[in-house]
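User: I'm curious whether this sequence folds into something compact or stays loose and floppy. Could you predict its structure so I can see for myself?
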Amino acid sequence: MIMLIWKKNEAAMDLICSGLFYGGFVMPMKPKKPCSYPGCPNLTDGRYCPEHKRKVNSDYEKYGRDKTAKSRYGRAWKRIRDKYASEHPFCELCLQRGVAVPTEQIHHVMPLSEGGTHDRNNLIALCKSCHSHIHAKRGDYWRGKRPQGESKSPRA
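Assistant: Here's the prediction. I'll summarize afterward.
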């Protein structure tokens, strides 16, 4: 019976299998927003349209990122990061709270810029939320320095 329905209406079965079809109706998609690049009228699902996303990332790599970062985060780091992520599939901080959230980023407990290494004891698997929370506490993204009294390590 299911095969007959599948063959007759593949589009409907694709919706059911993708999770968009729920309880007899199709879930609506989130409306698109204007691209955040100044003067761009394109609508997008993310912050920037594909054209400007590439440009913004390129500008960040060229002007905003530390010049020594490329030497620190080369091919060897990618291998170490991928191996660590495969061995730690869930965010280590969320697991301590009893929540299994997939790993999205591998974080250096002691930043490379402060003398840290790619050693496994200096790495921690995190979800995007926990990674942002750690850097917000440190003040890395907004003030350029860590607030006084805050610990460097999320494990401390």
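Summary: Residues 73-138 form one domain. The first helix runs from residue 2 to 8.
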